[in-house]
Every structure is written in C-alpha cells, then in structure tokens.
Amino acid sequence: LDAYQRRDKVGMVTFRRGEAEVALPPTSSVDAAAARLESLPTGGRTPLAAGLLRAREVLRVERLRDPARRPLLVTVTDGRATGGPEPLVRSRQAARLLAADGTASVVVDCEAGHVRLGLARELAAELGGSAVTLDELRADAVTELVRSTTDSRNAGHAGRAA
Q1: What is the Cα–Cα distance from 118 to 129, expressed in whole angstroms?
Q2: Which distant-in-sequence residues (6+ apart) come within 8 Å of 149 by Cβ?
Q3: By Cβ atoms counted within 10 A, which residue in 5, 16, 42, 112 is the most buried?
Q4: Above pLDDT 90, what percent of the chain?
Q5: 30-39 confidence digits (pLDDT tens)
Q6: What is the Cα–Cα distance from 37 to 1, expressed in whole angstroms?
C-alpha cells in the first residue's frame, strides 16, 4: 500500500547465460513484478557487468522521465562475475559508475555453501550501498534497509523513489 500511495515503480534486469535483458520495464504494478520474479530462470554464466550497465541505462531513462524520482538499485547476486571479458574488473567499474550517478543500492547476497567469498559485499562497497544476506531477509528488515539507504543517499533531495 505504501508503494502504491507513493507511486513507486519497480523494474527488473536479469543477467545470465552471457546476456543482460530488461525482464520487466519499470512499472507501478506490484502484481506484475511479483509474477515476473516468481518465473525468473536462473543458472549459467553471470554477466554481472552487463546487468549493472543495463540497469544503469534503465535508471537513466527513468530519471529523464521524472527527475524527481530517486532510484534504488537492488541487486540479487552471489557477486561472482563469470561472463564476458575481465568479468570482475568490469563489474566493479560498472558498480562505480552507478555510485557516481548517485544511485542508492542494496545488494542481496545469495551466496550459499560453506565457503563464502564475500564478493557480493565487495560489490555493495563499490556501489556505495548496503549488503544483506538471504538469511537476514524479512519484510520489515528489507523495508527498513530500503528506507535507510534512500534516506542517507538522498538526504536533502526531495522526490519519489524509483
């Protein structure tokens, strides 16, 4: 209800099997976003840099449409960039571009197993954002994280969240 009242939008960019694509253009429909999220395929190489750059372009267009909108990028990843040339270097460069744009970010670390590399946390640092693990995800915790991230990133700027 809160998102509906504020006219927030959500969009999805997926990155797998060597490519990044807009799976859901920015929309105010929470139902459309939930349905798309449930049907997302996973697996294959992870072109993380391509996904971040595609997300950056989507956010750039949204900023042009509504300059008062404050975007929040939520990246769900284990941080393992495995697609494309120099994948780790390129993903970090893409993250720094998003940070330079002033995009507030949260990285949801979905790394599993006993050996954890911490790459998602490193990505969050490059983005200038926060990291949260899947174990830490609860609706109230996510809501608070989003609010604190957008509040701290956009202190002193009026507008709506993207």
Answers
A1: 15
A2: 72, 104, 105, 106, 129, 130
A3: 16
A4: 24
A5: 788 778 777 7
A6: 19
Residue 66 has phi, psi (to 5 degrees) of: -145, 90
Helix (H) or strand (E) holding 48: helix 48-65
> Per the structure block, which two tokens stand in for 23?
């799976």
- How far lies 44's CA from each of 15, 49, 149, in Å? 9, 15, 31
Element of type H or E holding 99: helix 87-100
Q: Tens of pLDDT along 33-78?
A: 778 777 777 766 778 898 899 999 999 999 999 898 888 888 888 8
pLDDT at 81 over 60: yes
Single-letter residue type at 136: E
In angstroms, the CA 14 to CA 37 distance is 10
The number of C-alpha atoms within 13 Å of 126 and in the hemisphere containing its C-beta is: 21
Q: Is the pLDDT of residue 152 over 70?
A: no
Complete DSSP assignment for 2-16: HHHHHT--EEEEEEE
Q: Is 48 left (phi over 0), alpha (psi -120 to 50) or beta?
A: alpha
